[in-house]
Amino acid sequence: MSQDARTVTVKLLDKEYTISCPDGAEAELLASADYLDSKMREIKSSGKIVGLERIAVMAALNMSHELIKSREQNRQNVEMQLRRLGNKIDRSLDRFDAEDASRNTPDENA
Question: What residues contact 20, with CB distance under 8 A and at least 6 apart?
């Protein structure tokens, strides 16, 4: 273990694990462990899956699915915002072109 790493004890389904993590990342590790523990408890309480390893694998799969869905939703949101921004730019350019064209039209009374 490097000098920049710390050990943190986390509890998953009442079993303790000692994990090494970078200095300063302890709070994130603990929050991650709490989230994983809550997901594992949900699966355990359903009664459909038995065994710590199976529960952990199912929790990992469920969390991976959540992450993939969240990434897709974020991608769609970014695409929508980019389309809106593109439309706004197009409208501004159209107005600018129209104003420029009206300034450059020769005055017939001159």
Answer: 1, 5, 6, 7, 8
Q: Model's pTM, two decimal places?
A: 0.72
Domain membership of residue 28 (yes or no) is yes
Confidence of residue 1 (pLDDT cuts 50, 70, 90): very low
User: Looking at residues 24-51, what average pLDDT do you find?
Assistant: 96
Which is nearest to 63 in space by CA: 34, 92, 85? 34
The DSSP line for 48-60 is S--SHHHHHHHHH
Instruction: Say if CB 5 and CB 21 are below 8 A apart.
Output: yes
Counting the structural domains of the chain, the total is 1
How far is Cα 59 from Cα 15, in angstroms, rounded to an integer? 16
Picking from 46-50, 55-59, 60-64, which range would have the lowest pLDDT averaged per residue? 46-50
Task: Say which CATH number the domain at 15 has.
Answer: 3.30.160.880
